[in-house]
Design goal:
By secondary structure, the protein is mainly α. Helix 1 packs antiparallel against helix 2 and helix 5 packs antiparallel against helix 10.
């Protein structure tokens, strides 16, 4: 038990540290719990979304203070995400454990590939992404569009354990929102996905027997996020992204082949 808790603490601290620096890596947590530790999918997702809730709160506060959070647009998106996340939890309960694990591994694989693809795009553009301005598409101003987008991404995230930023952030950038603002929106949006998802999955496990695990997740993940946010200007972000992406692709392929 002590070794298991040590693994969980170190993993959550590292993932939180990575999120604090570049906003990614949360999608690795569900795989850790299911593939490495043998936890049920429900417990894995409950612990993961509790961590996403912590990192979402801390990260969005930092981005808000830096002026990189469009609150109005985020709240519209998040209104749909709450509904979608609730639906995702229901859908997850309707599929077999083996199918749920396969979905988790596929999400990690796609997430890793998407990170590599975005880094490749940035390199080809000569890092020409405008961090300060962005010609956002008019469709982003549509409340109905943001509600639908939030509902869809919320359902996918809560069903698969993807978290939020890894899916929402690139979609917002594609719609013309500047990368920094997109990360800020995605982090706050992940809170609205995490709350119904966490409540839903915790309702399927015996909370009295896992409260120590949940407390450990909150503390270690939160400390990791805080440390990462302080080191954001020290650690080479692209190198960290490449490491997370390559590791994600390799471990997910291994688990899919093994399955």
């Amino acid at each position: 038990m002590e070794m298991t808790f040590c693994i969980i603490a170190v993993a959550n601290a590292f993932v939180g540290w990575s999120i604090g620096i570049c906003g990614i890596a949360g999608f690795l947590l569900p795989m850790l719990y299911t593939a490495a530790l043998g936890y049920s999918v429900e417990l894995a997702l409950a612990a993961s979304f509790l961590a996403f809730l912590v990192s979402g709160v801390i990260g969005s506060v930092n981005y808000y203070k830096a002026g990189n959070l469009a609150v109005r647009e985020c709240l519209k998106l998040s209104a749909g995400s709450i509904i979608g996340a609730y639906c995702g939890v229901i859908l997850q309960g309707m599929i077999a454990q083996s199918a749920a694990k396969t979905i988790l591994y596929l999400v990690v694989l796609v997430s890793g590939i998407s990170i590599i693809y975005r880094l490749w795009q940035e390199k080809n553009r000569g890092n020409g992404v405008d961090e300060k301005t962005g010609s956002a598409s008019k469709i982003v101003e549509s409340t109905s569009f943001l509600l639908v987008l939030g509902c869809g991404t919320g359902a996918i995230c809560s069903l698969s354990g993807a978290g939020g930023p890894i899916l929402v952030m690139p979609l917002l950038v594609m719609l013309g929102i500047s990368p920094r603002v997109a990360v800020g929106i995605a982090l706050l949006n992940s809170v609205f996905i995490a709350v119904p998802a966490c409540i839903g999955y915790l309702g399927r496990v015996d909370v009295s027997s896992v409260w120590e695990l949940m407390l450990l997740v909150c503390i270690s993940h939160g400390l990791g996020v805080l440390l990462g946010s302080k080191m954001a200007n020290v650690v080479p972000v692209n190198a960290l992204k490449i490491f997370v992406a390559v590791f994600s692709v390799c471990i997910s392929l291994y688990m899919l082949i093994r399955a």
